[in-house]
Design brief:
The chain is of the alpha/beta class. It is built from 17 helices and twelve strands. The strands form two sheets. Strands 1-2-3-4-5-6-7-8-9 form a nine-stranded mixed beta sheet.
Length: 460
């Protein structure tokens, strides 16, 4: 006798399809630091909320010297750490400038492991030798500059370096060749916010009808005055073939107070965005969060004001060792950005920048993290991991290399739509290579041989 299949009833079928309740830990991106957290810093213990949210107070009280750092954190940091930071400041190629907001987010009970401290406050004891193939302007921006302060690398896009100052100075800055004041070790290219210099750039852009997309960076647009935001933005909007503009700023991450209390600047940005929209031109704000701890309830409030005014924000992170080079941290960052209305856009492989080798990690690390981040949230909230190819190849998807040797740490990229026929090499940090690779890099006579091997394997 044939046995008929058992057909589940409707209730059983529904139960089988319903996902189990989510683990609360999967919603950690919603848990934003709130309250008067800055009062745990001795120097800020008597600072009320209105004062802390004032962008002028934030600017006035930024940390630029070890003596000010010591005065701010007093007994929170050990004498050993302060001495280490003092020496780190001396040998750093980048000037130090840290907002009270950022300072208050550091875990001073363990500053060496803190991801925010690592980005802004150098320590001499953790510094590693620069890679032997490092160059000062590693991305070759000046080589693609037809006029000072404008990089024209991609066919339809240009980078407008409007100024050379920022509300904070990141140790890992790609433009340490120009941003901030001269250091003992470095004389920098001058890119001051000069109307005369800008006029030359405007004339070049107007003369090149293929340029549709302009990134306004520097330095940091946060440091432009409201009148400068309006003048620069409207002048670019008046060029008929410019269809897209992006103001690039780390400001929302390091000094969100400006969006809450600098009404003139806020209205200037919104005015350019609205005028662009009326002309069917796209004006956006690109920002730079690197770690979930940088996003607080203050951030949410500040970005909410932008969202309500119709300003769209994208995020570009830099993959950094000991900061965000884990699957868990990068996933949390992407989801937390999305929670506060910021679209994760890019994660950059750390550029080969002087004086911060301890912050770089490997191409393999980037590939691994991207594999796990993808699928953890919606595709439009998933960043693309890229290598900005040294020497001017532009942004290449991290896994799109022609060849990658994890022993020597050499990856070879091509950029057929940017610079056809050329090859661009990225080098993993030597201390993370296997023993065989470290030995070869210790022998200077092996350097060119390793490069030749990589190029041959890439099919050149």
């Amino acid at each position: 006798m044939t046995q008929l299949p058992v057909v589940p009833n409707e209730t059983e079928e529904t139960e089988r399809k319903v996902r189990p309740p989510a683990d609360p830990s999967t919603m950690a991106h919603r848990d934003l630091l709130d309250g008067e957290f800055w009062r745990r810093i001795p120097a800020f213990k008597d600072v009320d909320e209105a004062t802390f949210l004032d962008h002028r107070w934030q600017m006035k009280n930024t940390i630029t010297k070890t003596s000010k750092l010591l005065a701010a954190v007093e007994s929170l940091a050990s004498d050993e750490f302060i001495a280490d930071a003092d020496k780190g400041f001396e040998i750093a190629p980048m000037a130090v400038r840290v907002s009270p907001y950022m300072l208050s987010l550091v875990d001073w009970s363990n500053p060496y492991s803190d991801p925010i401290r690592a980005q802004f406050l150098p320590t001499a004891s953790t510094r590693l030798p620069d890679h032997p193939k490092l160059t000062f302007d590693s991305l070759g921006e000046q080589g693609d500059a037809p006029v000072p302060g404008l990089t024209h690398r991609y066919p339809d896009k240009a980078l407008f370096l409007a100024l050379d100052t920022c509300p904070v100075y990141c140790r890992f800055c790609t433009r340490s060749y120009a941003v901030g004041p001269d250091q003992d070790m470095v004389d920098k290219v001058s890119l001051k916010a000069s109307p005369k210099r800008w006029e030359v750039i405007f004339e070049y852009i107007a003369s090149r009808p293929e340029l549709e997309d302009i990134v306004i960076s520097g330095g940091d647009a946060w440091n432009l005055r409201a009148a400068q935001i309006e003048a620069l933005g409207n002048r670019l909007l008046d060029i008929p073939h410019v269809r897209r503009m992006r103001f690039a700023s780390k400001g929302p991450a390091v000094m969100p107070q400006k969006l809450l209390t600098d009404d003139d600047w806020f209205k200037a940005l919104v005015g350019v965005v609205e005028r662009g929209r009326s002309m069917q031109k796209d004006v956006m704000l690109h920002t730079h969060f690197n770690h979930p701890n940088e996003i607080t309830a203050i951030t949410e409030k500040a970005l909410g004001r932008l969202f309500s005014a119709g300003v769209h924000v994208r995020n570009q992170s830099v993959l950094q060792r000991g900061v965000n080079d884990s699957i868990e941290t990068m996933t949390l960052l992407a989801r937390r950005c999305a929670w506060v209305g910021v679209h994760p856009y890019y994660v950059y492989q750390h550029d080969m920048v002087k004086g911060v080798e301890e912050l770089r990690t490997t191409v393999f690390t980037a590939e691994t993290i991207e594999k796990h981040v993808r699928g953890s949230t919606a595709g439009f909230n998933t960043p693309t991991f890229v290598v900005d190819a040294p020497g001017g190849g532009g942004k290449r998807s991290v896994h799109s290399y022609e060849h990658y040797d994890r022993t020597t740490g050499i990856s070879v990229y091509t950029a057929p739509s940017v610079k056809p026929g050329q090859h661009f090499l990225y080098f993993d940090p030597i201390d993370l290579l296997p023993e065989e690779g470290q030995k070869r890099w210790a022998d200077e006579s092996e350097h060119q041989a390793m490069i030749d091997e990589a190029l041959k394997a890439a099919g050149t």
